[in-house]
Structure formats: structure tokens, C-alpha cells
Design goal:
This protein is an all-alpha fold. Helices cover about 75% and strands about 0% of the residues.
């Protein structure tokens, strides 16, 4: 990095802090709707910028998968998510806005009672951990700055927690405007200069592997299909739920998701094409650093700084969003719910705000510990998705059928089955019947769901 590159990165962090603290009043810090949902005044541009930017926190994992498996990355991390996001917009977004709830555990609490609400909050607290994205950011900062990995993680975590502590969701939305613009600008520049470089150095271009443009990338059909089912996570993504609750209207929520899908398609095209250039221009790149090594190869000074800021934007926008979701889940949906007395006629939800702020500290500490022990972002997504998503999907869908059900068994049994499935593989070397753990988990949930439905 040149001095100009370093200045650009420092300007990025300065802009992040300024936007994070901008117009943060004492009222926002104490009012639960202002702090947790930006006063339920989230506009269409803010909705789109935040939802799109938040979606790509594992960008280094995407680069890793594109470099290793090519087109498969779009098949498992793009196509199914567009489809389920579209269904979410059509069938759930408007109802969530009309429900006047704050979080996804709120939804479970209102439909299934306190125990189900707290259990769903525990699942979501684990699933929405920012740890995988802190892991990616640690790699990035260490690579470019030479700073110790642990120090890099700690610094970024403190920065994000500072403005979240003050501004809540409003701070997330304000910073996402800048990060949305930077992420697209950075990858457009990388693609442009990669194309120029390939035209100027034709002798160094490597042939693409045979499986690079194959939809499965050499993986089994069952593996690909499992990722499609894991994409059902979209239905219970707390970020989707939070932004729909915060939107100015249900029309804003639905339209925002539709437009976000178009931006996701565009950005996925950029990440795939730049990953392809990494494959043909770099011999034996470190897969997780494929985008970074390509940038170092083809980008001139200043442009490299802009691209580094773009990568930081992609990851930081997800870190602050998921840190805030995890803190809200821990502070409001677990601690506050446990302490709350349901017999009281009036409930002061503003009391949850200090607990959410404590949740920021807890989330930061746990995420740092997890990030220091994690080997791969993609493996983390796959394992957590396979185990926990089956325990949330079926109860969530059933909640819109207007029947009061006892869903605890439906939520717990698939988790137990999926964990046992993984333990059997660790002991014997293979999954039973070579079936991935997601399938027995979701099947168990559906069976118990049908049984509970018929019994009711």
C-alpha cells in the first residue's frame, strides 16, 4: 500500500465514524423504537442500501469459493437466495410490517408464547453472530497492514460498537449508504483493471479448469441441493425482519426487497467475473485472498486504496448490522424477556435499551473468541445453517396460518437430530446413508409440525 492508499483507508474509517455519530440525540439512545428500529421511518433508499450492503459480509469466503469452484458459487450463494427473497417479499414482508413487532423472536413470542420466543432468540443469537465476518476482516487488515491478527479484530470491533452504542439502527443505516456506494465502485474498478491487465499480458493467462463453468463445480447434487434448502434461512433472517419492521410502510418493505434482488444479481456478476480473472491471472493464489491478490496485481495506487475501502465496506456493513441484531437478541429478546413480568398491565420497552447496549459488549467478546478459533467462513455457514435453520423455518411458516400451536418439540427435535448426524460422521467418517444433516433435521421438524397441527 502506498501512502495515498493508506490515506484513503483512513478517510473511510473517519467517514464511518462521522456518519455513525451524526445526529445521534439523547432521545434516540433511550427510546426503544428510535434505537432499535430507527423510529420506524426507514425510507426506500435506506432500506435498499442497508439490505444489499449487509448481505455480502463473507466476501472473502465468496472469493474463496469462486476461485476453487467457479460458477457453483452463484448457484449456491445467489440463485436460491433471490428466489426465497422474492417469496419473502410477496408473502411475509407486508405482514411483518402490519404486525408492529420489533424482532423475529417477538414474532415467535406473540404466536407461541414466552418459551418459544426465548428459544428462537437463542437460535438467532447464534446464527446472527458477526464472528465469520470479523474473521474475514481480520485476514484483510492483517494482510494489508501487517498488524497482528488479534489487534486487527479488536480495533474494528471497538469502532463498530462505539457508534452502535450511540446511534442504534439509525447509525447502521447512515453508514450503509456510504458502504453501498463503495462496494460497487470497488468491484467495478477491479473488473475494469483486470480486463486491461489481461489484454496487456496475454502470455500469462491460464486456462480455466474444466469444472469452473459447470453449475455444480464438481460437487454432488445433494450438496448443491442442501445449499438451496439452507437458503430458506432468508425466511428467518433477522436482518430482513428488522428492516421490514423499520420500514415506513409495507409497500416500502416489499419494493425494497424487489429492488435489492436486482442489485444482488449485479454484484454477484461482479464478484464472479473478478473471481474468474483471479483464476486466469494468478497461479496458486491463496483462495481466501483471491480478490486481494488480484487487486495487488492489477490495480494502481489510489485505485487499490479505493478497492481496500470497498472490501472494508462490504465486511463492516455486515459486522455492524449483525452485531446490532445479536445485541438486540441477547439484550431485549433474552434478558429483557426473562426479566419481564407478563402480569404487568403496562410494559416499558424503553427498559430494554440499556440491556441491548450490554448485549453489544457480550456479542463483541463472544464474536472475537469465535473468530480466533474459526477455520473457514463457508464451513461455518454450512454447519450452522444445517443445524439451526430447520428448527426455525417450519414454526415460522406455521405462524402465519393463525393457529396456536405448541412448537417447542418442533423447534428442538430437528436440532438434536442434525447434531447427532454430524457426530456420527465425526465418529464413523460418513453421514448415515450419505445424507447431509440438513435433510433429517428439516424432515423431523415437518413431521412433528404435521403431528402437532393434526392434534390441534
Amino acid at each position: 500500500m502506498s501512502y495515498l492508499d493508506i490515506i484513503i483507508v483512513l478517510l473511510y474509517f473517519s467517514g464511518l465514524m462521522l456518519l455513525g455519530f451524526y445526529k445521534t440525540t439523547s432521545k434516540i439512545q433511550t427510546d426503544h423504537k428510535g434505537y432499535l428500529l430507527a423510529g420506524r421511518k426507514l425510507s426506500l433508499p435506506g432500506f435498499i442500501a442497508s439490505l444489499v450492503a449487509t448481505w455480502y459480509g463473507g466476501i472473502l469466503g465468496i472469493g474463496e469459493n469462486v476461485y476453487l469452484y467457479g460458477l457453483q458459487t452463484w448457484i449456491i450463494f445467489g440463485l436460491p437466495y433471490y428466489f426465497f427473497a422474492l417469496l419473502f417479499a410477496l408473502f411475509f414482508a407486508g405482514k411483518i410490517k402490519d404486525s408492529n413487532t420489533i424482532s423475529l423472536p417477538d414474532h415467535f413470542y406473540n404466536h407461541y408464547g414466552k418459551n418459544a420466543g426465548i428459544l428462537s432468540a437463542i437460535y438467532i443469537f447464534i446464527l446472527s453472530s458477526p464472528a465469520p465476518y470479523i474473521l474475514s476482516l481480520g485476514f484483510l487488515i492483517q494482510h494489508f497492514s501487517g498488524l497482528p491478527y488479534e489487534f486487527s479484530l479488536l480495533t474494528v470491533s471497538i469502532i463498530s460498537i462505539c457508534y452502535l452504542w450511540k446511534g442504534g439502527l439509525s447509525a447502521v443505516i447512515r453508514t450503509d449508504y456510504m458502504q453501498f456506494i463503495l462496494m460497487f465502485a470497488g468491484f467495478v474498478l477491479l473488473l475494469f483493471f483486470s480486463h486491461l491487465h489481461s489484454n496487456q499480458t496475454e502470455s500469462t493467462i491460464l486456462p480455466l479448469p474444466d469444472n469452473f463453468l459447470h453449475p455444480t463445480g464438481g460437487a454432488t447434487f445433494q450438496y448443491i441441493l442442501t445449499w438451496f434448502f439452507i437458503a430458506l434461512w432468508t425466511f428467518v433472517d433477522p436482518g430482513f425482519y428488522q428492516r421490514c419492521s423499520a420500514a415506513t410502510s409495507k409497500k416500502t418493505a416489499q419494493k425494497g426487497i424487489f429492488i435489492s434482488i436486482l442489485f444482488w444479481i449485479l454484484f454477484d456478476g461482479l464478484t464472479f467475473l473478478t473471481g474468474m480473472y483471479a483464476k486466469i491471472l494468478i497461479v496458486d493464489a491463496q483462495p481466501v485472498l483471491a480478490y486481494i491478490q488480484l487487486a495487488e496485481l492489477v490495480l494502481p495506487s489510489v485505485v487499490l486504496g479505493i478497492f481496500i475501502a470497498a472490501l472494508l465496506s462490504v465486511i463492516m456493513s455486515t459486522i455492524d448490522s449483525y452485531t446490532f441484531i445479536s445485541a438486540t437478541t441477547f439484550g431485549r429478546d433474552i434478558l429483557w424477556r426473562v426479566q419481564m413480568n407478563p402480569q404487568k398491565k403496562s410494559i416499558d420497552e424503553d427498559q430494554a435499551v440499556p440491556l441491548v447496549k450490554k448485549g453489544l459488549i457480550v456479542t463483541g467478546m463472544i464474536s472475537l473468541m469465535l473468530a480466533l478459533s474459526m477455520p473457514s467462513v463457508v464451513k461455518i455457514w454450512y454447519t450452522l445453517g444445517s443445524v439451526l435453520v430447520p428448527g426455525l423455518i417450519v414454526p415460522f411458516v406455521f405462524s402465519f396460518l393463525n393457529k396456536k400451536l405448541n412448537v417447542i418439540t418442533m423447534m428442538v427435535s430437528p436440532i438434536i437430530v442434525s447434531i447427532l448426524w454430524i457426530l456420527i460422521k465425526n465418529i464413523f467418517g460418513n453421514y448415515p446413508l450419505n445424507i447431509e444433516p440438513f435433510y433429517p433435521g428439516i424432515t423431523t421438524s415437518i413431521i412433528f409440525g404435521i403431528f402437532v397441527w393434526l392434534k390441534k
